[in-house]
Amino acid sequence: MREHLTPEDALRHIGDVERRARRPARTTGLILLVMGVANIPYWLAMSLGPDWSKYAAMISWFIMTTFILVLGHRWSQQAQDREVTWINRPTGPVTATTLVMTAVMVVGTFLMPEHPGAGWITLIVALAVCTSLPMFYGAWRILRAER
Amino acid sequence: MSGNGSHLRHQLDDLIHAPVRLSIMAALAAADKAEFRFLRDTIEVSDSLLSKHIITLEEAGYVEVEKVFVGKRPRTWLSLTDVGRRAFQDYVSVLKRLTEGSP
């Protein structure tokens, strides 16, 4: 880089560095978004799908969780973002809401009759979407912080 | 640049208005807290050059250096102080005024 920066150069350079420095946070936001989207078919398969889809959902969940844990650990050793730290707090609202919604979803799946009617299916779909909402919120908080 | 621009230019913080130090400040403003090696790779400088400029910014009270051990591995975490964050915001604000004032 040139030793004497013009104001335009400096602003452009700040933008470039910020984009690179926020890469771990941005990727965490995108992962949360993907998790939120993947969570809906996961719960639908687990509660309404045939047996083969349950196994496929469990294997996919295991692979995805392992990948996220490894990646998350690696990035936490490199850079820390305020929003990511807030979202990852074990007692924070995103984690707590996710756990509560997951518990509600599990209970709903157990209470569901063997041959659910339209009402039950609607309820399960609504619950599956609600379970993803904290992840969508987390992704939104991280990604909107892009400067 | 206009006369008004020349006047504003004097408000630029010389400590920040140097390529490597600007990179450090911009990266820390964006990442909140960064590990030494991540910062080095992000701004593409050598260990020694980064250390040299970190010391300058630390002495100015702009950067906080925190040394920790993860197991037996030493890690150096860097972050902006409140003074440093304010200085960087002011610097960016002057830059924007300068570019807006350009013909």
TrEMBL record, chain A:
<keyword id="KW-0812">Transmembrane</keyword>
<keyword id="KW-0472">Membrane</keyword>
<protein>
    <submittedName>
        <fullName>Uncharacterized protein</fullName>
    </submittedName>
</protein>
<feature type="transmembrane region" description="Helical">
    <location>
        <begin position="118"/>
        <end position="140"/>
    </location>
</feature>
<keyword id="KW-1133">Transmembrane helix</keyword>
<feature type="transmembrane region" description="Helical">
    <location>
        <begin position="93"/>
        <end position="112"/>
    </location>
</feature>
<feature type="transmembrane region" description="Helical">
    <location>
        <begin position="52"/>
        <end position="72"/>
    </location>
</feature>
<feature type="transmembrane region" description="Helical">
    <location>
        <begin position="29"/>
        <end position="46"/>
    </location>
</feature>
TrEMBL record, chain B:
<dbReference type="InterPro" id="IPR027395">
    <property type="entry name" value="WH_DNA-bd_dom"/>
</dbReference>
<feature type="domain" description="Winged helix DNA-binding">
    <location>
        <begin position="20"/>
        <end position="98"/>
    </location>
</feature>
<dbReference type="InterPro" id="IPR036388">
    <property type="entry name" value="WH-like_DNA-bd_sf"/>
</dbReference>
<dbReference type="InterPro" id="IPR036390">
    <property type="entry name" value="WH_DNA-bd_sf"/>
</dbReference>
<protein>
    <submittedName>
        <fullName>Transcriptional regulator</fullName>
    </submittedName>
</protein>
<dbReference type="Pfam" id="PF13601">
    <property type="entry name" value="HTH_34"/>
</dbReference>
